Amino acid sequence: MGDKLGKTAGNAVWLNRDKTSPFEFYQYFLRLPDNSVERYLKLFTFLSLAEVEKVMEQQKQDPGKRIAHKRLAAEVTKLVHGKEGLESAKRCTNALYHGNIQALEQMSDTELQELFQEAPYQMIKDGGVRINHQRAANPEQVLVLGQHILSNGLSLIRFGF
Hints:
It contains 7 helices and 3 strands, in the order αααααααβββ. It is mainly alpha-helical. The chain has 2 domains: about 5-115, Tyrosyl-Transfer RNA Synthetase (Orthogonal Bundle), CATH 1.10.240; about 120-160, no CATH class.
């Protein structure tokens, strides 16, 4: 009847920041199928039914804006991770998906580590990453000045085979 949520659905969403960062948590709810959003707005937020109906009406008027998804993700992330967690999730989203350089510059070390902790290393292991035309073989490799970082401060990183 209903869709499963969490580990039985193929992934786990934790309330603990150490297991699911505010960014990952926010993205999980942002990416829910359209047919789940209204139900989750009713179950996981403190929005009134009238407010949920209003949000869903806005969603129907312009589905591409994903207004209901964004509201759900924001409400639930703020509830679980607080205002700071929501701001962090939005900053990471803007830096990663919206090309916002200012958001990237404002990211803390913790946010950067959380954002890239789940980065897929398989491409490196398979030889699909090159740094200055040299194949990178170690996912834990540190970029070294003079070897990976050129004298002008640049590095050419190429992905693909």
